Amino acid sequence: DHDVAAMLQRMLVQAGYNSDIAYTAAQAREYLRKNPKSYKLVTLDILLPDESGKSLLSTLRMEPATQDLPVLVVSAVADETRRELNGGAVGVMDWLQKPIDQERLIRMVRQVASPGKTPRVLHVEDEIDVHTIVKTMLQGECDLVWASSFSASKELLEMEDFDLVLLDIGLADGSGLDLLSVIETRGQPPQVVIFSAQEVTPEYAQRVSAVLVKSRTDQSALRETILSAIRDI
Question: What DSSP string runs through 115-171?
């Protein structure tokens, strides 16, 4: 869509980024063939005139020069396609539904074009099975540190810096909620996402970024909540 392409390009220019517009999959391939090292990111519509964006993505992943090139899907069918692909595809860093969220778009572009440090996440959790799931879910997204007790978590929070704490409440040697006062004394307090079997009162909910109850939260919602908090760092 020529109008959408022009609008996207204006958004990128305002944020200080150069871009080329390809209106077809064939044109995109030609740009990438001529300048394989020139691009940091591809924004991809699924509904292209000559072939599906999914097909283009698949071929990009088969070519050595583009197999690791990050892709940001920007499409009227982004949500539908994400569900088709069970939540994700190799190298798709995010899925933006039209109309375009400009702030989210630029945040994703900035993350790739001007990468900062890898976010450090402390996972406070006494069940190894839950930690294993989270570790698999966040592989490649952050530096994940695990603490299985209140005392170990408190020590880590006092000695080391973290960008986010994924916090269980029911620990064998204390309540995870008591760690909030430790977290809040840090010079730059990490964001906190509570992920626990227990409910929390509104008083505690106001002190954290998000509260998720294990029995009511699937893996997709958990991952999206964590990644959203990481993106806001």
Answer: --PPPEEEEE-S-HHHHHHHHHHTTTTSEEEEE-SHHHHHHHHHHS--SEEEE-SEE
